[in-house]
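Researcher: Let's do a round of design. I'm pasting the structure tokens now; please hold your answer until I've finished.
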């Protein structure tokens, strides 16, 4: 389903989907969408964990977090 910007506020009030793809030509709109998505996720009890992966990354920590199903509920 391809959502439009006008649909976004209602989508953020509903239970969140497992995955979102945010894209577009306007960097400001993309950033606003990401901020509202993070805010909605936090309000719904999700916790954010950021990994910067490279050859020197702690891959065991990433694997452990990826396998923790509570991240994707």
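Researcher: That's everything. Go ahead.
Model: Designed sequence:
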């Amino acid at each position: 389903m391809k959502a439009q910007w006008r649909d976004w506020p209602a989508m953020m009030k509903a239970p969140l989907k497992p995955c979102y793809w945010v894209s577009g030509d306007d960097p400001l709109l993309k950033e606003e969408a990401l901020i509202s998505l993070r805010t909605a996720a936090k309000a719904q009890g999700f916790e954010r964990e950021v990994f910067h992966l490279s050859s020197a990354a702690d891959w065991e920590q990433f694997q452990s977090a990826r396998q923790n199903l509570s991240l994707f509920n």
